[in-house]
Protein: Alpha-1,4 glucan phosphorylase
Organism: Sphingobium phenoxybenzoativorans
Amino acid sequence: MNVTSQTPLPKPAPRQSDPGILANEIVERLTYRIGKDAKAAKPHDWLHAVILSIRDRVIDAWIASTHKTYEEEGRRVYYLSLEFLIGRLMRDAVSNMELLDEMTQALSSLGVDIDVIAELEPDAALGNGGLGRLAACFMESMATVDVPAYGYGIRYVNGMFRQEISDGWQVELPETWLAHGNPWEFERREASYEVGFGGLVDPAADADASPNQMVWKASERVIATPYDMPIAGWRGKRVNTLRLWTAQPIDPILLDAFNAGDHLGALRESNRAEALTRVLYPADSSPAGQELRLRQEFFFSSASLQDIVRRHIQYFDDVRTLPDKAAIQLNDTHPAVAVTELMRLLLDDHGLDFDEAWSITRRTFSYTNHTLLPEALESWPVPLFERLLPRHMQIVYAINSRLLAEARRKGGFDDQAIGTISIIDEGGERRVRMGNLAFAGSHSVNGVSALHTDLMKQTVFADFHRLYPDRINNKTNGVTFRRWLMQCNPGLFGLIREAIGDKFMDDPEALRELDAFAHDSAFQDKFTAIKRANKEALSNLLRQRMNARIDPLALFDIQIKRIHEYKRQLLNIIEAVSLYDQIRSHPERDWVPRVKLFGGKAAPSYHNAKLIIKLANDVARVVNHDPAVQGLLKLQFVPNYNVSMAEIMIPAANLSEQISTAGMEASGTGNMKFAVNGALTIGTLDGANVEMRDHVGAENIVIFGLTADEVNMRRAQGYEPRKVIEASAELSQALTAIRSGVFSPGDPDRYRGLIDGIYDHDWFMVAADFDSYASAQRSVDTIWNDHDAWASKAIYNVARMGWFSSDRTIREYATDIWKVPV
């Protein structure tokens, strides 16, 4: 049967949400889609059946969303990110489709506990930390506020590694989240594209070709095949698409080689292609690792750009109108090579002249910067870039020529400033600066907190800001409260609804009405009981998984994030050692019982970060087995921190550690998740902590340490950490204990280099901020001992965090950058 676009198709009747109907649907899918009788079904069978049942409803909304024409939608947003840390999707989808109560009742009638089966869903290993989780929050918020959008990324087979701890050391193991398939995804073979690497570039042979038109003859080609996942917004208003690419060889097996006995060689093309989507962030400490990383970034960027341009031509037949219909957002520098890929498509495939192509490109792209760390602003050796992407290297040089000429014409830029603006770094090994490429190729460049944006203008992009003073803007990050309050903390969610009604579910800033309950003793008691229940749940989980015994009545002090020296887990551990010494030395004092929980992964090639994990475990082993501090101090490193673990740890936290060196954390989003779940923040004036202080009130957050300006001043004036250490008895004693092997008796020199780094240069200001941090921790003890004061401050934090919703952030992107109506 040939169904044309004019053939009227019957619309399916709306699916019912009655628990009985849902139960029947689940059993039907269990029987006919999974092939299991209800009596023989195992928990993972029930999970699959539930996903298929809710997926049908999501697909109805997905199809309705895609039926809207471009004319109805105006401009579409395309969000390019190397990471999407989406976490488990079943509960998210059920909740956003407003079926959680009905689904819970339906499963209960079948003798199935929704919480039990929800725990079985794999946690998609598509991201590393905050950047990837932000992208996931943004995808959900774009659907919620009705922004038509595609997310583009990579369908990693293993993704970020699974972390185990062996004798205190991090061990990296494959994360096999796709081992049993992914019921949320749909393969779209019809939207596959070739992506090339290497080869030669020749002028176009056509006599009518533009002078800028070239033919890239790639020596290696792979097929990019997309898998689509529906991302439902709140109340199912819109369902957008997350499109993830997988790589396949053009020739899966070289039969001649196989038949000749070269069985491994016969699979080399297949292995080479599959390596592109095997692992997130391959270690780039070796030339081979750097090459694979660049290949990954170009692979997904090229496939995404080909898809975007193909879709635009299909609907509008004129590539020149692309900026009117497409807004492409680069999430950090990972997809920055997309700027040159769009230029290649416009120049070589569509025959545009260079200036017109460059205008279209700049009006289409916008770039989000997430870091001020020079090593995180990616750059690639010119020989590597040119060998893998010869045509794109030509385009980089052409863009750079125009960029530098523009700066020269404008005036006021000396040779040093010109060198800073240049896309090619000429200092030492010549490298392609991807941050500069992204900046030059975008009409908008945004930071992710007010402080971060100001520092961008003053530091890494100061000369670019002088050249383009209207380009940098701020979009402070946010988080989706559907996942990070409503779903992960149902007790608190229910209490809030009971107190102020349902308005905050659609308007997070309505949480402000909770201010009226901050000093209500009855509300405080309920609030505290919910926090205690969350702590008991976490305590029970850690006991089951790790045989860790922690007291839920103690203060839960939690630091969970990527392990990095600038995030200063080391400062936290050193203060714990100091506290340990004080408790033993002054047993007569009324010490607050405290549990310090750590979680996070270190990059496989980041030696000091892995050493910090080992130190946390070594200190924990000594402290936790010392009868002198039993019940007063406990440390625990929680392995394999991911979204699902965060959903348990964050609601249980009393104290949120946000202690990065001021001026180095772009924003942070964990700080927001903790606060809206009723934790007090101890932190520096860094990233979004500055704006959080302004919103929750300085009296409801514990701030310590140097400011970003003071950090820079210390460094400029010749900071001498050794003098600071010698002036602080507690710091000196703690560092000496660690350095001398008190916590590593089998290897006394294990931490000598780590601690010597603090004595010698202390770039991350651990010593400089120690006394202030220790004093702030004792002020936390004082607040904790006043039950009413702690409860009121925690409630104020929940009440005043509504502005940090990712819905607000996305509306700002849509209005100010993408020009999409919301």
